Amino acid sequence: MPNTDLTTRPKVAKIKLSPGKTTFYSDPSIKRDPDARGIRLAVGSTKKTWMLTKRIDGKVRNITLGSWPEMPTVFAARDKAKEAKQAVAARTDAQSTGIHTLNDALSSHIARSSASERTKQGYRDQVHNNMADLFERKIEDITIDDLERVLRGHGIATQKQLAQIIRTSFKRAAVVRRCFNVADDLKVDTKGHQPDNSVRFETDERWPALDLIDAKRENNLILAAAFELMLFTGLRAGNAITLRWENVDFEAGKLRIAKLKNGRAGVFPLADRVVALLASLPQHSDWVFPQHDISKHVFHPNRLEDGDLVLRPHDCRRLFTTAARRAELPAYIIDQLRGDVEKGVQGIYDQGSTSHRHANAIAKQIEVECRELPTSNVVHIAAKR
């Protein structure tokens, strides 16, 4: 093994790469330093890597400390070697824990998770499609810049999903390996992002929402019913899919949401159509919208589509609001039905002004927009109010 001066950056920089083989260099001047024993510089055809050779439990182990020039001298390698020795002694190093890469950390998390197999597979698919190279890298080689670079170029929703998977994986690695959690400071950059608040069809023409829901009903009654509930109540997807039968009052025609997005609970009057919809569903689970495994609710719905026609969960909330305004309901009534926090002073004192009449008015307006009910019927209904 060649001996050379590894104590200064210029000296290490002068060491030439070794095409076709790996040459190991040591520095005899630091052999008296117990923390530097076993440190070598491995020089290959493309890079220089600091290694620590140490006998552990009767076996010789080679531990990668880092690359040059990020780790410029043997002294920097020595500091890293001290950490590595402590990790080996505590059995929190990569080899002892089996967690070398982010993929390993994610697999460890998934093995302990009680999430549905669909959720777990969703994690794996996102990694495979968008972060495969990152998740194959060694954890100690990953920087916050690497994480932020992976998120760029994706939409806000996808960025949030990827960031969550990264944070989950790094958190598991930090717990098992006692290493620094690089992802702690990972944030999704939404600066300058303008959310798309428009649906994917022309709302001045016939709304295809009910057509898409009816088409889905043929092969997935539960998912179709969830979309219909969202359309006729304005509920967010998260509140709809986690609805339990205990929170549906058929006699009063109301449902209770334990926690809305604003953190509050809410009780909402239901249109007659929605009461009939819920009454038609099987009640063999605690969940209104269960999976095949009835102990769990359905996964977050994605979209209904037919060619260019698309209906997303939040589109239902947009259409609900549009119908309420076209039915000329007061803003404070619409706020209450949407579960929004009212801004005016009166809203603080109002104990609930919404009624089934308002819910039915919006439902009839939605039916008109979808051409399910003639406009003349709505005029007749309005006249009777």
Layout of helices and strands:
Blueprint lengths: L8 H6 L8 E3 L13 E5 L4 E9 L2 E10 L5 H16 L4 H4 L4 H11 L4 H14 L1 H5 L7 H8 L4 H22 L31 H9 L3 H13 L3 H5 L6 E2 L4 E4 L8 E4 L2 H8 L24 E3 L2 E3 L1 H14 L4 H8 L6 H5 L6 H14 L5 H10 L1
Antiparallel strand pairs: 1-2, 2-3, 3-4, 5-6, 6-7, 8-9
Helix pairs in contact: 4-8, 9-10, 10-12, 10-13, 13-16
Shape: elongated
Largest sheet, if any? Answer: 4 strands, antiparallel
The domain tally reads 3
Q: Which residues sit in consecutive blocks of at least 5 with pLDDT less than 50? A: 378-385
Q: Note the run of SSEs as H and E.
A: HEEEEHHHHHHHHHHEEEHEEHHHHH
Number of strands: 9
Secondary-structure content class? alpha+beta
The radius of gyration over CA amounts to 30 Å
The CATH class label of the largest domain is: Mainly Alpha
CATH fold node name of the largest domain:
hpI Integrase, Chain A
What do the pLDDT scores average to?
87
Helix percentage: 40-55%
Strand order of the largest sheet: 1-2-3-4
CATH arch. level architecture of the largest domain:
Orthogonal Bundle
Structure description:
By secondary structure, the protein is an alpha+beta fold. It folds into three domains: 9-89, 2-Layer Sandwich (Double Stranded RNA Binding Domain), CATH 3.30.160.390; 102-185, Tyrosine recombinase, N-terminal domain (DNA polymerase, domain 1, Orthogonal Bundle); 209-384, Intergrase catalytic core (hpI Integrase, Chain A), CATH 1.10.443. The protein is built from 17 helices and nine strands. The chain has a four-stranded antiparallel beta sheet with strand order 1-2-3-4. Strand 5 and strand 6 (254-257) form a beta hairpin. Helix 4 (102-112) packs across helix 8, helix 9 (209-217) runs antiparallel to helix 10 (221-233) and helix 10 (221-233) runs parallel beside helix 13. The longest helix has 22 residues, at 156-177. The chain is elongated. The model is unreliable at 378-385 (pLDDT under 50).
